[in-house]
Amino acid sequence: MGKWRYGVILDAGSSGTRIHIYRWLNSDKARAKASSGELQSLPVLETDKSWTKKIKPGISTFGDNPNDVGPDHLEPLFKHALENIPPGEVANTPIFLLATAGMRFLEPLKQKAVLEQVCSYARKTTEFQLPDCDLHIKVIPGETEGLYGWIAANYLLGGFDKADEHNHGKGHHTYGFLDMGGASAQIAFAPNATEAEKHSNDLTLLRMRNLNGESTEYKVFVTTWLGFGVNKARKRYVEALLQASPEAEELPDPCLPSGLNVTVEGKPITPGSDEDMGKKPHILGTGKFSACLSQTFPLLGKDAPCPDKPCLLNGVHVPAIDFDVNHFVGVSEYWHTTHEVFEMSHKDKAYDFHTYQERVEAFCNQDWESIKKGVENHKWGKKVDETTALEVCFKASWLINVLHDGIGIPRVGLEQMKSGYNNTKAVLGHATDKGFLDPFQAVNKIGDVEVSWTLGKMVLYASSEIPAMPAALAVGFGSNEPGIPSDFQYAGGKYIPLSGDDKDTLFEDSPRRIPGLLIFLLIVCVALFILCGRDRRKTVRHKVRHMFSRGSGPLKHRRGFGGKLFGLGTSPSYERVLESGEGADNFELGEVDSDNEQSDSSEGSRVGRTSGWATPQIKAGFEPAAPAYFDNPVTQGAGLGLSPPSVFNNPMGRGGLMARTDSRERLAGSGHRSRTGSPSRMRSPMMTPLKESVD
Which UniProt keywords are given for this protein, alphabetically ordered (predicted)? Predict the structure, then answer.
């Protein structure tokens, strides 16, 4: 086990599967390098843009042909992972495939068949750590996805580790999280103290662990709206158009640019098709954005029954949101639709409702021919093609309705905050410079790291690998109850000690050097023993018999060939470190050297009660025992730093010709004591930790 730990997560969304690779320092290494402040923080995870890869379409499209999901879909993703993870660490790397909204719509039998094929293919073609397919390869509920996203956003923003720098008032220092993909939307936030007490039964208890082994707990509200992603919302919208005019051949749509004719599926009408011949209805764009906002509003379901008040969308209960302290970041479609078209020239600007709506109206009220010319001239950027331009007006109206009429985000630029929030500027400054203190900000990356729920999952996993302090509870989440609730979802990681070869830089390149070096020393010493002559061999044999005939006591080394080989002075006495007991508990090795896209979005983006974790449930108050498949016992320090046995020590005294033959009785009787410069009075330089090279 090397100093780096790796983890692989495949985000199987509705539009495609995106693989993410993360790495973090082994907890022993991280703790040895950490400052006092860093010890009170979560593990530091790293990733790289090149470690991410997406394949389209989603795995839900293999429902009728599950056998094809491996060779046609997963093969390039697994190949990508194997190209970026050191071969020696593959077997130690856990892999997860967590499916979101696309697979949630698939009927159970087809869903099961696809997941079984994913597991089978992964086990046949890779050596990744995959002990339990039911836990590592599964469909996760939207609540789980939302909670992971909340962890990722606060982890990157510093809401966990730097509470003083993110004081939003009323003792609140975390950020809310909004995610919208193609099929579903999620919200996750920590209510203020009043709402948290009032709705305690609705909250999820989340527990993580800092590097020093201490637990941290958060109470988060998480919910999901299935069918409220942009693609599903568009589908519901078109169905409403058809129901409103069942006999019409042409359906006017203010959410499409004027002059654009498409099928009800949003595809171009081809000559000779049923739509072209008038046998099937088609959609005609009229390009009136204000009318589009009005017609998409009913999709929010604001009039749906609310059995547990308060509710936001479609009768789903959500505690009241205090926007004085709850500042939200939005990912996936919240970013794509607010920035990729309308913010190309100043993409880091904070979200401003007034300015945003003006830009949307100016774009969507154009006719289709003008928009096509703008696309051809890259007026809105190289990423904006005709399909993006065709869809963006409906998406923008849907996001505006969800944010402001659905969730209730204040319309910065039009509405005043209750606390006198300063919003006098028409366009707010850079979101990052403002510390994300606006009611809502759309983000894609924070500190060059993409805000993905997959990061939140892996932060939780890495956190669970840290050895716990006494009385610290398990890492994971579940119902908001003291201790370990019955539905607690364990994070699944296990403390893995740093292996012996990584603790000594002399041998860290290859563990084979240790036995090889010992064999080499043995051969050299034997050769010298043979060449030293009969008298010297006799003296050595005498000393060996003399040494083993004495009573027990600390083992002592004199400077012999081993000391000369490594340029060492005298070799002092040392006591063996026991493998267990008091001595072992206090033994500390020197530190070692080391090196260091998301939900079901239609374009790819960024958590409930279930997850892909493999640690079994145990009694409250204890970290669960890891299952056998994580067991990887390592004997630490075996054979490291030991000079050759005293049988090979130089038998020559200070005269250079004869060895001392004073008996133990004579020495004892004369009260002989070692001189200050005697080898037995010094510490062994072989037990001094080797210096490391600078990382």
Answer: ATP-binding, Hydrolase, Membrane, Nucleotide-binding, Transmembrane, Transmembrane helix
Q: Is 553 annotated as a binding residue?
A: no
- C-alpha to C-alpha distance for 452 and 600, rounded to whole angstroms: 11
As a whole number of angstroms, the distance between CA 170 and CA 312 comes to 24
Would you say 184 is a known binding-site residue? Answer: yes
Q: Report the distance separating Cα 666 and Cα 663, nearest Å.
A: 5
For position 163, what pLDDT does the model report? 67
- What pLDDT sits at residue 400? 95
Q: Helix count (H) and strand count (E) of the chain? A: 20, 19
Answer yes or no: CATH 3.30.420.40 is held by domain 4-226+446-500+599-623: yes
Q: Given CA atoms 76, 79, 80, 81 in this order, what sign does their dihedral have?
A: positive
Q: Rounded to whole angstroms, how far apart are CA atoms 271 and 279? A: 13
- Paired tokens of 280: 């099937």
> Is 195 assigned a catalytic role?
no
Cβ atoms of residues 528 and 651 within 8 Å? no
**d(C-alpha 79, C-alpha 10), whole Å:** 13
Q: Please state, in angstroms and rounded to a whole number, the distance separating the CA atoms of residues 47 and 450.
A: 9
Would you say 211 and 217 are in contact if contact means Cβ atoms under 8 Å apart?
no
Catalytic residue among 83, 89, 145, 386: 145
DSSP code, position 545: H
Biggest CA-to-CA distance, the chain: 121
Q: Domain residue spans in the chain?
A: 4-226+446-500+599-623, 230-312+328-438, 509-588+635-687
Q: Are 443 and 335 in contact (CB under 8 A)?
A: yes
- Read off the amino acid at residue 130: L
Query: How far is it, in rounded angstroms, from Cα 457 to Cα 467?
Result: 19
Q: Does 604 show up as a binding residue in the annotation?
A: no
Calculate the alpha carbon distances from 622 to 108, 458, 465, 473, 616 in Å. 35, 21, 14, 6, 12
* Domain covering 230-312+328-438, topology: Nucleotidyltransferase; domain 5 (3.30.420)
Which residues of 14-155 form beta strands (DSSP E)? 17-25, 45-46, 53-55, 95-99, 137-139
How far is residue 520 CA from its own chain's centroid? 45
Q: Do domains 4-226+446-500+599-623 and 230-312+328-438 have the same CATH topology?
A: yes
CB–CB of 356/342 below 8 Å?
Answer: yes
Name, in order, each residue with C-beta under 8 angstroms of 534's C-beta and a sequence gap of 6 or more: none
Q: Which residue has the tokens 């379901």?
A: 301
Instruction: Decide: 58 and 13 in contact? Cβ < 8 Å.
Output: yes
- From residue 553, alpha-carbon distances to 549, 550, 574, 683 in Å are 12, 8, 11, 17
Contact between residue 620 and residue 484 where contact means Cβ atoms under 8 Å apart:
yes
Spatial separation of the C-alpha atoms in residues 79 and 117, rounded to whole Å: 17
Q: Is 117 annotated as a binding residue?
A: no
- Contact between 598 and 450 (Cβ < 8 Å): yes
Do the beta carbons of residue 45 and residue 624 sit within 8 Å? no
| Neighbour tally for 583: CB within 10 Å | 12
User: Alpha-carbon distance 17 to 54, whole Å?
Assistant: 6
Q: Is 441 annotated as a binding residue?
A: no
pLDDT of residue 164: 67
What are 209's strand-pairing partners? Answer: 215
Sign of CA dihedral 228, 230, 236, 237: positive
Contact between residue 98 and residue 10 where contact means Cβ atoms under 8 Å apart: yes
Regions of the chain short of the pLDDT cut 70? 1, 163-164, 170, 343-350, 413-437, 500-517, 540, 542-695
